[in-house]
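This section describes the prediction task in plain terms. A model, or a person checking by hand, is given the sequence of a single protein chain and must write out its three-dimensional structure as a string of tokens. No templates, partner chains or ligands are provided. The sample shown here is typical of the held-out split.
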Amino acid sequence: MASLGALFGYGIYLAHGFGPLFSVTASPTLSEITLSIASMAGVWATLVLNIPDFTRFSKSQKDQLIGQGLGLPVIVSLFSLIAVGITSTMIYLYHIPMSEAVNYVNPVNIMYLFTSNPLLALFVGVSLVIATVSVNVAANILSPVYDLISLFPRKLDSWGKTSIVAAILGLLYVPQLWYNNAGTIFDILDIIGAGLGSIAGIMIADYWIIRRTNFKLVDLFTPKGEYWYSDGVNWKTIITLAVGFGVPAIGFFVQPLAFLYDYGWYLAVGISMALYLGLNWRKRDTIDKEELKEIK
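The expected answer:
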């Protein structure tokens, strides 16, 4: 954070204030704005869905509300402001045409602009490595580690061992091939957004609407319990997930229907919620009756 702030300040100093930055203008349409939000959902949906992996260690509901209230809206807004400021500053200072500006959302490309100043290039490079390892890797490995431990508790019985397995699996995805240019990045983010949007729709429908935030904690870990479903598999959820993700995916393969893919996150959330509620409409009645019995 400090290094980014320093780079932002350095750019503002070279640009002689904020005024010149507003000369870097663009006229995004409403469609472009909504598409950008959908793509960014692919980034943030991961953290949103596995936020319980972090908040599970909170001592109270109040603690996790304060943590999320400060950590997400405030810090993310500040980071976004600095990131946009740095990108705009460099586009202005180095006279980068708007047709190439999209490439400079990548901090590595910005670093290359400083090759004439070895010390500054080294500072930015080291800061980027430290930030990637300490923030991105640490935050993103948490969810797969918990998932792998839950899936294979007997074989993966320690955090260290499971972290190594998760890291190896991550390398097998060859992320450097998926994220090697701006176009590919948005394609992958849209795919991830559609998949996670489908999961989010199911979670919202089940936890907030059907169960009204009430879960039987013991049954989550009890074979043959309430959440055992069909030999441990909830086929209604699998079907919902497949449809919610499948509809946006059609747009990826059928060009005339590309809008389905472009707005995949929105569609996935809406379709999954509606379908899951439709497949489980009787469950809501059953839960209501059980709650009435408990009250009596």
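For orientation: The mean pLDDT is 81.
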